[in-house]
Specification:
The chain has 136 residues and is α+β, with helices and mostly antiparallel strands. The protein has 3 helices and 5 strands.
């Protein structure tokens, strides 16, 4: 896959889509956490009484967990396929490759909770080196 470079306008236009995508991931993760807790309870019941209905519930919950993981993977793949670099899933931190006029590559940086792309950083410095976009 060829590396994609974004303009600031292109990257900004993807922020609403990213907000929705990471909100979906959060919902799937929450659903998976609840399912995991219920699954552990059902496994405990199964060990204590061997009920076949409990076995069916356990299998159903395991299938649901697998489906949740597939949905999350699909969303992450869609983001990656756009050329966006996912740095952290838990905070929805992403970078957009960007070329300065002199040919130097930097990253436009966005994290969920930010209304727009307001920061950038050198590739080597990462998040700790974020600087205001108006310094570009």
């Amino acid at each position: 896959m060829t590396k994609r470079y974004f303009t600031l306008l292109e990257a900004q236009s993807l922020v609403p889509w990213l907000n929705d995508a990471f909100a979906s991931i959060r919902n799937y993760l929450l659903k998976n956490e609840i399912s995991k807790t219920l699954l552990e309870e059902q496994i405990h019941k199964l060990r204590s009484n061997g009920n076949s209905k409990t076995e069916e519930k356990v299998q159903s919950m395991e299938d649901e967990s697998t489906n949740v993981k597939k949905h999350i993977d699909k969303i992450l793949t869609e983001i990656n396929d756009e050329g966006i670099l996912i740095k952290r899933i838990d905070t929805a931190l992403v970078d957009f490759p960007y070329l300065l006029e002199d040919g130097k590559e930097i990253y436009l940086c966005w994290m969920q909770g930010e209304q727009e792309i307001a920061f950038w950083h050198d590739i080597e410095t990462g998040f700790s080196g974020r600087r205001p976009i108006n310094e570009l």
